[in-house]
Specification:
alpha/beta; Rossmann fold; 9 helices; about 50% helix; about 15% strand
Length: about 230
């Protein structure tokens, strides 16, 4: 059937990435973690002490940033490379999380990464998750999802993720980080986080990852059938 773009937006720690990866695998689509791309830019800015108030330095830094996703056959996952180095683990650390929303709010950063994301999804057959995929990157995406969840549940999930990477972070600190990021994401001038008008909303507070995937998979298949066999208007 005709390939589509599945845009999954929503808040941090709602299960977007996990759901998107599993969905892409079931559909045989490519998965693009746009949040990881913004984290990679943030890591570069932190490592090179790029001031976020100097447009000239920001543009020069962006010219020196090269991001690639490489598929790992052994695990079946894609890992992010920044200028040739695997930074998949480093970009998930809290010091990057603390700054990623501020870097993501910069117009120059959003413009560059949006163009990159559009090139990746040009041929369709992708599942892309982020904050503005259905509203800005692909406003014409065939299927749009907006994910949300209770704040404490989100913080607990993020804490478990960090523990798996042997990072011990207090739950209150994680909640403060998520609230700070939510505020910046919702109020930034450039592509703020918001639900697209034609997006399906999924609250992941009380449902499993498998249930999330099955729900979106059913919506995706329905959309593909609808496009393949359109109902003629009388």
């Amino acid at each position: 059937m005709r390939k589509i773009i599945v845009a999954i937006d929503g808040y941090s720690a709602c299960g977007k990435s996990t759901t998107a990866k599993l969905l892409a695998a079931k559909l045989g689509y490519s998965y693009i973690d746009t949040g990881a791309m913004y984290r990679a830019v943030t890591l570069y800015f932190l490592q090179h002490y790029i001031p976020l108030t100097d447009p000239k330095d920001i543009l020069e830094a962006l010219e020196n940033i090269h991001i690639q996703f490489q598929h790992v056959a052994k695990t079946g996952k894609s890992e992010l490379y920044l200028n040739g180095l695997n930074v998949e683990d480093e970009i998930r650390k809290m010091y990057v999380s603390d700054k990623v929303s501020e870097v993501s709010a910069l117009p120059q950063v959003r413009k560059q990464l949006t163009e990159m994301q559009r090139k990746i999804g040009k041929k369709k057959g992708v599942v892309m998750d982020g904050r503005d995929i259905g509203t800005t990157v692909f406003p014409d995406a065939e299927l749009k999802i907006f994910m949300t969840a209770d704040m404490r549940v989100r913080a607990y999930r993020r804490q478990l993720e960090l523990l798996e990477k042997k990072q011990i972070v207090d739950l209150d600190d994680i909640m403060a980080n998520l609230e700070h990021r939510d505020h910046i994401d919702r109020t930034r001038q450039e592509s703020p986080l918001r639900k697209a008008l034609n997006a399906f909303e999924i609250d992941s507070t009380y449902i499993t990852v498998e249930e999330q995937v099955d729900c979106i998979l059913n919506l995706a298949v329905s959309k593909m059938i609808e496009l393949e066999f359109p109902i003629s208007k009388i």
